[in-house]
Q: What sequence folds into this?
């Protein structure tokens, strides 16, 4: 989706405000939003969570803080998954006729869950491209979730690493299964992406799935 | 004194809660009432991010890489396993890659599409990393961004920007400052900064 979240290469979005090592959360409510998002039954699909944040209308997305976006997308996902109703969100009270759920994550399970190394690596067919090969990022503009930023579409890059097949967000975010696809790191020169004013030594590398790429 | 009274109120949370604080509290009450989340689990998750993960973890990785050539090599071959050797693994650190700075090369990490960040080694990202100005500019003007962090790079140094578009997470291994010769691994770890491991600063 060509949303405002896909902001690589844009200018004039404000000043960068460096900060020293700060607290993990600047307000207590941010920690609760983070924790609810991690503990929520909706967390099982990280791609759907990212897409839900992308669906926040652009002007609001740009005006919201990071955890305001998390809060909005958490409530919307809960409704979408029929885990809570809009009525319950408004009233703040559970519908007395609704069944009581069992939390997906209990306190004792948090430390092991946080330390358990998950993996997005899956089995799939042989990769089409090899390290060192020049490829072109395809000129795709899907209406749904994608991790192919606009600023590389149509540009030539060189495969610098192959990571095996990973869960494909464009499918997984929409409940179409994991559809694993070979994942590559592709290096684009800064001049290829940004034109002759860029430093000829510089580059930008992205992790791109095979369906985003075509033979150059 | 008035000042003390203010501090006292603040400590006890008697300041009027913000609208967001109220909305979040209401959602939590609802989810607890419905059995969808365990409030003690939420406490444990907050504690994890406030106390168990953070840039001190990444600093241990960097200091080990500086002092142990065998470890540095393992980090190059399979950063996920090498980092797990030190006990750091888990969500948002599932597929790690270490990026070594050198006198000729400087690495900078960003996530233009959201705010992907290696939680087990760096903790949660600073606000600027998650904000539009950094996400938009790091890929097109990395040298200008670095300057705003006080890091000026000569034109003949190659800048490599890494946009974290998948579940691969990047950790920059800064150059070891020359003046640190003879220091212990523990002393070295103290010198390694969060920004050094994102790539917005040199050490």
A:
């Amino acid at each position: 989706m060509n949303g405002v979240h896909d902001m690589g290469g844009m200018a004039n979005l404000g000043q960068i405000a460096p900060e020293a090592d700060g607290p993990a959360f600047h307000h207590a409510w941010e920690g609760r939003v983070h924790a609810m998002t991690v503990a929520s039954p909706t967390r099982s699909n990280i791609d759907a969570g990212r897409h839900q944040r992308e669906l926040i209308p652009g002007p609001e997305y740009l005006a919201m803080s990071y955890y305001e976006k998390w809060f909005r997308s958490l409530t919307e996902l809960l409704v979408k998954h029929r885990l809570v109703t809009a009525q319950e969100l408004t009233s703040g009270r559970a519908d007395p006729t609704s069944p009581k759920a069992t939390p997906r994550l209990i306190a004792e399970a948090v430390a092991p869950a946080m330390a358990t190394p998950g993996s997005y690596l899956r089995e799939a067919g042989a990769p089409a491209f090899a390290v060192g090969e020049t490829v072109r990022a395809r000129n795709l503009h899907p209406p749904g979730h994608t991790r192919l930023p606009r600023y590389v579409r149509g540009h030539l890059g060189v495969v610098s690493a192959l990571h095996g097949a990973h869960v494909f967000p464009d499918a997984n975010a929409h409940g179409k299964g994991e559809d694993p696809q070979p994942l590559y790191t592709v290096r684009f020169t800064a001049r290829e992406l940004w034109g002759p004013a860029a430093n000829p030594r510089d580059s930008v590398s992205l992790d791109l799935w095979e369906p985003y790429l075509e033979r150059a | 004194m008035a000042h003390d009274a203010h501090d006292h109120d603040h400590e006890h949370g008697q300041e009027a809660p913000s609208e967001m604080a109220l909305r979040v509290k209401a959602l939590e009450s609802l989810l607890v009432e419905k059995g969808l989340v365990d409030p003690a689990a939420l406490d444990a998750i907050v504690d994890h991010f406030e106390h168990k993960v953070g840039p001190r973890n990444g600093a241990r990785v960097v200091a080990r890489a500086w002092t142990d050539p065998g470890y540095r090599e393992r980090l190059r071959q399979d950063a996920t396993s090498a980092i797990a050797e030190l006990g750091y693994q888990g969500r948002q650190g599932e597929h790690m890659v270490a990026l070594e700075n050198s006198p000729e090369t400087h690495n900078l990490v960003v996530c233009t599409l959201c705010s992907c960040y290696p939680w087990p080694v760096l903790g949660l990202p600073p606000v600027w990393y998650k904000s539009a100005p950094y996400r938009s500019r790091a890929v097109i003007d990395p040298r200008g961004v670095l300057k705003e962090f006080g890091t000026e790079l000569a034109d003949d140094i190659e800048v490599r920007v890494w946009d974290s578009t998948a579940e691969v997470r990047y950790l920059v291994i800064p150059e070891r400052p020359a003046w640190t010769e003879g220091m212990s691994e523990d002393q070295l770890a103290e010198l390694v900064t969060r920004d050094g491991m994102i790539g917005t600063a040199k050490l």
